[in-house]
Amino acid sequence: MLLIQNLKQIHLLRDNRSILLSFHSCDSSGQLCYFKLFPRMKILPKFIPHSVAMDRRKAIKNLAIVSGGLITLPQWMVSCGVSDTTIHQTSFSIVEQKILASITDTIIPAGNSIGALSVGVDKFLQKLIDDCYEKEAQDNVKTQLKALDESAKTIHKRLFVDCTQAQREELLLKLSLSEKKEEKDFFDLIKSETIRGFNTSQKVMQEYLDYKVAPGHYYGSVDVKTSDHA
Amino acid sequence: MPEDKRRTYDAIVIGSGASGGWAAKEFCDKGLKTLVLERGRNVEHAKDYPTASKAPWEFEHRGTVSIEQRKNLQGARNLREETLHWALKDDEQPFIQEKPFRWVRGYHVGGKSLLWARQTQRWSDFDFEGPARDGFAVDWPIRYKDMEEWYSYVEKFTGIAGNRDGLPELPDSEVMPAFETSCIENYFKESLQKNFRDRHLIAARCAHITDPQQIHIDQGRSKCQNQTMCNRGCIYGAYFSSNASTIPWALKTGNLTLRPHSVVHSIIYDDKKGKATGVRIIDGTTKEMLEFYANVIFVNASALNSNAILLNSTSNRFPNGLGNDNGLLGKFVSWHNYRGKASATFEGLKDKKTDGRSPSYSYLPRFRNVFKQEMDFLRGYAVGVAGGRGTFSNTDMIGDQLRENLLKPELGSWYISTWMMGECVPLEKNHVRLSKDMKDKYGIPQLIVSCEWSENDNKMVADYIEQSKLMFEKAGLINIKAEDTQSPPGSDIHEMGGVRMGLDSQTSLLNKWNQLHHCKNVFVTDGACMTSTGSQNPTLTFMAITARAANYAIGELKKGNI
């Protein structure tokens, strides 16, 4: 396989809104190619030096690998936000995505304010589980999503997503008390990561938790006000 | 110009961390054409801090590092998206742990000055006189009076937040206003004063700018904004790093050449001239071996790597490593004992809380064996003390109640947590040496690290645990926990020694000016030069020793002595 393990040179250009990335790279046979990455999906080979002309078909295949999301960017690119340019193809099917979304909505429903869905926790979970969890844990999540839907059908004669909040809560809490490790692990993972996704979302942090990137001060001892819920 | 002339400088500094940056600044300020060799990539201040000032929601995995990204980072600990740009790849410099050792390295321009805890406590003569008084290692060839002006010199430029506490065991620094200490820390301080006459809890002194002076403005640095995201790199340049301070300062003189991707292989010794003439590097990008030449060479590669470079610098004159006539090079390696941790909570002071965030905390200077030997172990430990009042949400349920709890967290009890910073006594058996058969990808022999805890360290941990409990109890704290984490040597990131200073060339490698006794134009001024370790965070002392040695070297160059 190609490709971007052998980065020769990377140029990062920022214009107002987007990040334009270009890099030289070698394929497995040491041939040099030159790519530009445009934000969101577009990866175009701009120039392939004649002297090391790369087989056209190979180039296309390489591109397919890139657009399949297998690209490995160097750490500093990922961590400076360029990772937005990589393509995350979720491994979750549409059905699985819907159940997962419904679960996060059940754990933290919006009520009259905000909930997990309104701050995008479902999308965060998909990405987190795909990228950061080992295959075994990923597989268990999918197995349990399916099983949960089956339980809903058996007990309530409808899809999980069509159950009422109370029914969905009951189905989930049953997993939390399960003696089956797979069920308990699934519940614990989804619940703790849903809480994390919610608590670290911009809306919750800024509008409810008074988070400031740069507070500009530290006072070691101030009076507690009634609004502090002490 | 011929190739070798183009590669000739007045001075070469190996390493661009806190001490190397200071050497570069001093040389460039005094007009010496200086080459700084850094084995890692370049890191330009602010521009190359990709995660600086990012909020938690701006990280795609909210901090968790993906499996893909972890692949060549199996040896790294505490990997986070926020600081992933500093992580050392497994294949960069494998080393052999003859005994468990945690070797934290900062291989990029700025080195560990971008990763440090920024704590800057001065040494006193209770530290410099330690080996002589207590009969271990060898006597330091310097005393506090030799260092005092250099401490002041680097502190003014670096910027230190702290108080003037008037403690003989922790001499005052040149300070700007300290960060406030928390309500619980103040309460604990009072309790210590009442119950233990000799235990003075102070606001820790740290390299943060709280009141920028002209010298800091001239560096382009500004006041701390309390982001407490320091270890990602600080766009305000509020804390001291080579990147924010000494390196750009040196570059501005026009005298500095900074060469990243330069993995130092060895120092070149000329048998005929009887001195070192340059440095051999492997270019990290092309893997080509190159030589650079200079009249004076400063070794600031970080303690263990400085040892490795000298050990690998063999010649007819020095078959066992540069300056190593007595066979002590690489021996008496030491570090700090950070094994102990303790915590407790307090049910009082419910009408108070903290506001904002502090990049610092409180510091309890060493109180054991300071004025005289009184315990059944040598030396002692300082204690870091952090206290605050967090918030919590009950998350036992799911549904509407969970949301309400998360959106309206409650104030918890005050907590306090402490960690020990113990002085390790350097022992000959704790050493590093080069492998005879294993090499890294640059063809440089791998370093074997053979360091272990001693009975003295174990006793000190036990005393810390006992005293932590006692101090907490006397203060009326509850939920008291104190433990020996059993962390391996090196976890403190304060490795020192191996090229120690001393009065006698039979028993030390460096003289009182940090020159190799047997190769006077090579100076070692990073942690490797340390004869003993003290209990203070050592970087301030490395910087002061470096500035002192660099100015001495400049004088010696002018006199034609080296």
Structural summary, described in words:
- The complex is a heterodimer of chains A (230) and B (562).
- With 230 residues, chain A is an alpha+beta fold.
- Chain A has two domains: 4-82, Nuclear Transport Factor 2, Chain: A; 94-208, no CATH class.
- Chain A is 46% helix and 13% strand.
- Chain A has eight helices and five strands; from the N terminus they run ββββααααααααβ.
- A four-stranded antiparallel β-sheet of chain A has the order 1-2-3-4, covered by helices on one side.
- In chain A, α3 (94-107) crosses α4 (121-132) and α6 (165-176) packs across α7 (181-199).
- Chain A is elongated and about 55 Å long.
- The termini of chain A are far apart.
- By secondary structure, chain B is α+β, with helices and mostly antiparallel strands.
- Chain B contains 13 helices and 21 strands.
- Chain B has helices spanning 3-6, 18-29, 67-70, 125-128, 130-134, 144-158, 183-195, 214-217, 246-252, 303-311, 400-407, 455-474, 539-559; strands at residues 8-14, 34-37, 96-97, 202-203, 256-259, 262-270, 275-283, 289-299, 331-334, 336-337, 340-346, 352-356, 362-364, 381-392, 410-423, 431-439, 445-450, 478-484, 496-498, 515-516, 519-524.
- In chain B, the strands form four sheets. In chain B, strands 1, 2, 5, 6, 7, 8, 20 and 21 form an eight-stranded mixed β-sheet that branches. In chain B, strands 4, 10, 11, 13, 14, 15 and 18 form a seven-stranded antiparallel β-sheet that branches. Chain B has a three-stranded mixed β-sheet with strand order 3-17-16, with helices on one face.
- In chain B, α2 (18-29) links the parallel β1 and β2 (34-37).
- In chain B, α2 runs parallel beside α9.
- Chain B is globular and about 80 Å long.
- Chain B starts with a helix and ends with a helix.
- The mean pLDDT of chain B is 97.
- β5 of chain A pairs antiparallel with β12 of chain B, so a sheet runs across the interface.
